[in-house]
Amino acid sequence: MKLAPSLLSANFAHISAEIAAVVGAGADYLHLDVMDGRFVPNITWGPKIIGDLRALTDLPFDAHLMIVEPERYVESFVAAGANIVTFHLEATPHAQRLLAHLRGLGVKAGIAIDPQTPVGALVDIVEDCDLILIMSVNPGFGGQRFLERSLVKIGEARALVAQRNPQCEIEVDGGINAATLPLVAAAGADVAVMGSAVFDGIDPAEKLRSLRALVAK
Ligand code: DX5
Ligand code: ZN
Description:
Blueprint: E1 2-5, H1 15-24, E2 30-35, H2 47-54, E3 61-66, H3 74-80, E4 84-88, H4 95-104, E5 108-113, E6 131-135, H5 149-164, E7 169-173, H6 181-187, E8 191-194, H7 196-199, H8 204-212
Parallel strand pairs: 1-8, 2-3, 3-4, 4-5, 5-6, 6-7, 7-8
Helix pairs in contact: 2-3
The chain binds D-xylitol-5-phosphate (DX5) and zinc ion (ZN).
């Protein structure tokens, strides 16, 4: 499975060192949480910061847009260097159009669903997705408790992509730590996003290596 440290819990006063630590410890993607204070009750960063971070590593940038009207901004995030752009189904009325547009821009097209949105809502657009993000907390903050029901949803998403789009990755985000990571892996996820489990504490490289030891590459 792929591990995607989320910079939401990193210390931006030392961001070069934080990124170097997780790159050195074998991160597969860098997960970048974009929040607008409207879709979620928190604000983070936009394309400028992502463009600056781009110079620090070649690792794929996995941009998770928690913003309303994502269609207004995707081109800026692609220009800033995002390799995967994931937006929320709940945040836009024309998800299929935006997925196709993202592929046309040459990036991987991802769609995220909140805890209240059933996997079945993706049935008619699964072929248009390169990544499905199952939120295992309500988005907006790091350090929340994993919602158990997400394990069922991972299994449903695995069955859906097996049938209709086997290349599509299943990513899970929120409350993943040493206790829940093996459950997420067993349920069939391809990518685990982890913020506080990696960056809370003094040694993110050591944290990531010990999480890696729990699941096969
Ligand atoms: C939350 C973000 C997550 C966040 C996860 O809305 O989408 O990526 O960083 O944090 P943890 O791993 O601490 O739950
Ligand atoms: Zn995220």
